[in-house]
UniProtKB/TrEMBL annotation:
<feature type="transmembrane region" description="Helical">
    <location>
        <begin position="138"/>
        <end position="160"/>
    </location>
</feature>
<feature type="transmembrane region" description="Helical">
    <location>
        <begin position="169"/>
        <end position="191"/>
    </location>
</feature>
<feature type="transmembrane region" description="Helical">
    <location>
        <begin position="90"/>
        <end position="110"/>
    </location>
</feature>
<keyword id="KW-0812">Transmembrane</keyword>
<keyword id="KW-0472">Membrane</keyword>
<keyword id="KW-1133">Transmembrane helix</keyword>
<protein>
    <submittedName>
        <fullName>Cobalamin biosynthesis protein CobQ</fullName>
    </submittedName>
</protein>
<feature type="transmembrane region" description="Helical">
    <location>
        <begin position="64"/>
        <end position="83"/>
    </location>
</feature>
Length: 195
């Protein structure tokens, strides 16, 4: 799924209105697994001058990049952080790690060609889901509609639970990143490359 969707879903599940900082922690947890990818892509295209088609055509699938993605999407890494947060009763860590784990879990079922080694360091096995959040050859169009529905539901739910203006502004901005391109283009094709 797209990164803003991960952030909204993670917040909907793990943010607690009585502790406003858990909203930010959950959103950052939903973002965190994709930060290394964004950094690698920006470094490659902006600083190293590598053409985008080469970045997404070969570098993205290289052993070195996939090694990074194995760590940032590892069920074991996120699971240990979540267990630590629960054990120590740190709501902020629980919200962050829970959203990160949920991000990895939803990527597990929505990535085909670009799947990660999510059982690192125990195994290098890769599950190639029969569905892809972006590839029409693997039901990407259907998943796009489901994703849009999840974004709208999570946005409404979060705005209902979190009443402060700054919270609602952040929530709506994240939702707009997904919803506006769909409205402007009439389709989901503009969303690929964010998850």
């Amino acid at each position: 799924m797209n990164t803003p969707t991960h952030m909204l879903i993670g917040a909907a599940v793990f943010a607690r209105p009585v502790v406003p900082s858990t909203l930010v922690a959950a959103m950052l947890g939903g973002l965190a697994p994709d930060v290394p990818m964004f950094a690698l892509v920006l470094w490659s295209t902006r600083l190293a001058g590598i053409p985008q088609h080469e970045v997404f055509g070969s570098l993205f699938y290289s052993d070195s990049w996939q090694a990074v993605f194995a760590v940032d999407h590892s069920f074991f890494v996120w699971g240990l952080l979540l267990a630590l947060g629960q054990w120590r009763r740190y709501l902020i860590l629980t919200a962050f790690a829970g959203a990160g784990f949920l991000h990895a879990a939803t990527d597990f079922v929505t990535h085909h060609d670009d799947a990660r080694r999510q059982f690192w360091p125990v195994s290098d096995w890769v599950f190639r889901s029969p569905v892809s959040y972006w590839d029409p050859n693997y039901y990407g169009g259907i998943i796009g509609v489901v994703e849009l529905g999840l974004v709208l539901f999570a946005t409404a739910f979060l705005c209902w639970r979190h009443r402060k203006l700054w919270q609602r502004v952040v929530i709506v901005i994240l939702a707009a990143v997904i919803v506006v391109p769909v409205i402007v283009t009439g389709g989901f094709h503009g969303l690929h490359g964010m998850g």
